[in-house]
Design brief:
The protein is an alpha/beta fold. The protein has helices at residues 12-22, 30-37, 65-75, 88-103, 120-124, 141-150, 162-166, 227-230, 238-242, 245-251; strands at residues 3-7, 44-53, 79-84, 107-109, 131-133, 154-161, 217-219, 222-224, 263-269, 277-288, 291-302.
């Protein structure tokens, strides 16, 4: 049986890949996942791996290591943090080679859906003897969200690009070929389809109503959006997509699942969390450059039965 590792950030995409590999797929249309998982049939998910810059773990503001390590504990899975040094392509190649030589890993599975890093991970596995698997590649956003809900994920928005989402005139930026996926907060703007049943009028509001989390107001004919108030700390629930999300997808060209770095998520609970769920008892909002982050000051693992 081949041993694989999941490249793990604790966001919805890497968590979804893990669930597809470890959970029963009963209740999921086979046409949605069968071909995507065919190359991974019979594989054993041996461990989770988080790649972090040398001495720069604190820079993982969208995905703090404190959160990631608690998630691994909730999952009851072995978790490695592997430091990588620039130049990052060679740093990743060295780390991935260590996965094979030191841990018997022959496949690396990522939650990548789009090529937002100029083929970085494809290049990172070259010459390592490890095969890259991207079972979510090209998945439409409606399907992705339906799977997130199917596996009972509570995915909370942990980071928003306030320049891109709050200002129509912000200039898109792109990453270099040596920019690792963990740094992909500033990629080119794109769009993603809204989930089925969610409509947006020309102002970007569902059915022309103010049915958003924080409210979408009008000023001189322009929609006024506050991504920190509207999105940061919100769960990716059907209610969010029926409320404020259309204003950003239609009005700002945002990918509906943030796949181009418009937002990032933490998963606080999911079907595979056998040792409890994460409970955020304290948090602050910090801003850095064009991004605002939800920063945990007190987060604990709590038995699910004690959280309403």
């Amino acid at each position: 049986m081949a041993s694989v590792a999941v490249s793990f950030t604790g966001g919805k995409d890497s968590m979804l890949v893990l669930h597809l590999l470890r959970c029963s797929l009963a209740g999921i249309d086979p046409s949605v996942v069968q071909d995507r998982l065919s190359n991974l049939a019979g594989c054993d998910v041996k461990l989770l791996v988080t790649f972090a810059p040398v001495g720069g773990a604190a820079s993982f503001k969208a995905h703090p290591l404190t959160i990631i390590q608690l998630q691994a504990k909730a999952l009851g899975m072995r978790h490695l943090v592997m430091e990588v040094a620039p130049p990052y392509k060679q740093g990743y190649q060295a780390a991935i080679t260590t996965l094979r030589e030191g841990h018997g890993i022959t496949g690396l599975v990522t939650g990548d859906i789009l090529d937002v890093c100029n083929g970085f991970m494809q290049g990172a596995v070259q010459g390592t003897g490890v095969t890259l698997h991207t079972p979510l590649w090209g998945m439409d956003r409606q399907t992705l969200l339906s799977l997130v809900y199917h596996f009972s994920m509570d995915a909370v928005i942990s980071c928003v690009d306030v320049t891109r989402l709050g200002n129509r005139d912000s200039t898109p930026r792109s990453t270099s070929a040596d920019t690792p996926p963990a740094s992909r907060d500033t990629t080119d703007v794109g769009s993603g389809a809204l989930p089925a049943g969610v409509r947006a009028d020309s102002s970007g509001q569902e059915g022309g109503t103010d049915a958003s989390r924080g409210g979408v107001s009008e000023s001189a004919g322009e929609s006024v959006l506050d991504p920190v108030a509207d999105l940061l700390g919100a769960s990716l629930s059907p209610g969010l997509y029926a409320g404020v999300m259309p204003a950003y997808v239609v009005g700002r060209g945002m990918d509906a699942c943030g796949e181009r770095g418009e937002f990032h998520t933490w998963v606080m609970d999911a079907q595979l969390f056998v040792n409890g769920r994460l409970h955020l008892r304290g948090k602050v909002v910090e801003s850095s450059g064009s991004h605002s982050f939800l920063v945990p000051t007190d987060v604990v693992l709590t038995p699910k039965a004690t959280i309403c």
